[in-house]
Inverse folding.
């Protein structure tokens, strides 16, 4: 069994165990195909590569993490976006979720607040040939107004409340998937639907643990990444 095959099996198992919460017993085959296609080892630091196909988060420097594959697959599935969709991601991080999204929708725009991570992910996605992806460094709380409105918006860092600019940049009929809650405490994954009249309906899916959505990039890397 290859690493990817094992990972797909582990994701399917976790989907099964959480089926009562997530309301399905299997994810969209298009999402699973994307998970099979994107090589996660290209998105993790060299010294973490042996764990690339384990179903867990991994450190990517600057105190940030590449999300757990099950969560990446679940959020992509929950977004419910088809091959024509234009999608915004907030929190590029390693670029892994960006790459998975890009296999499922037409075009992805992704914003990362930490300049080093933004630059690395940008280079990596270009080198790997993900052509329908645009990334930039900035505060994703503010969205990407020049490219709005979006069919779907996916946030991979937890805010204490839903950022109003993101709701604004969602098309009527669009969907926002995001973790909401305390920075290092209780958080829940929310699905927010904007109906044709612009009215919002929220559903809570399951408890999650994401890094916080910050409003300013840290000035220096945390000590664990300090080489000196
Ligand atoms: N999707 C990423 C997850 C990275 S963790 C992956 O698959 O690797 C969440 C990321 O959100 C971190 O890189 C963090 O720096 C970033 N982030 C936090 N607050 C942000 C903000 N306001 N705007 C954009 N990115 C932000």
């Amino acid at each position: 069994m290859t690493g990817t095959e094992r990972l797909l099996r582990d994701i399917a198992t976790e989907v099964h165990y959480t089926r009562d919460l997530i309301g399905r017993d299997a994810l969209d085959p298009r999402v699973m195909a994307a998970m099979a296609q994107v090589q996660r080892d290209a998105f993790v630091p060299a010294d973490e590569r042996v764990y690339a196909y384990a179903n867990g988060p991994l450190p990517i420097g600057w105190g940030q993490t590449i999300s757990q594959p099950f969560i990446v697959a679940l959020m992509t599935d929950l977004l419910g976006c088809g091959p024509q969709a234009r999608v915004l991601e907030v929190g590029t991080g390693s670029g892994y979720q960006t790459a998975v999204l890009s296999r499922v929708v037409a075009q992805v725009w992704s914003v990362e607040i930490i300049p080093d991570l933004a630059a690395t992910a940008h280079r990596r996605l270009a080198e790997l040939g993900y052509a329908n992806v645009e990334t930039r460094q900035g505060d994703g709380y503010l969205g990407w107004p020049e490219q709005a409105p979006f069919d779907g918006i996916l946030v991979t860092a937890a805010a204490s409340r839903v950022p109003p600019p993101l709701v604004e940049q969602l098309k009527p009929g669009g969907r926002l998937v995001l973790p909401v809650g305390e920075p290092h405490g209780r958080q829940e994954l929310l699905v927010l639907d904007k109906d044709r009249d612009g009215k919002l309906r929220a559903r809570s899916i399951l408890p999650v643990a994401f890094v916080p959505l910050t409003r300013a990039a840290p000035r220096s890397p945390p000590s664990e990444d300090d080489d000196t």
Q: What stands out?
A: The pocket of S-adenosyl-L-homocysteine is lined by residues 64-67, 90-91, 93-94, 96-97, 111-114, 117, 139-141, 156-157, 211, 213-215 (CB under 6 Å). The chain is about 30% helix and 25% strand. Helices lie at 3-17, 19-22, 29-37, 69-79, 96-102, 115-127, 164-168. The chain has one domain: 3-207.
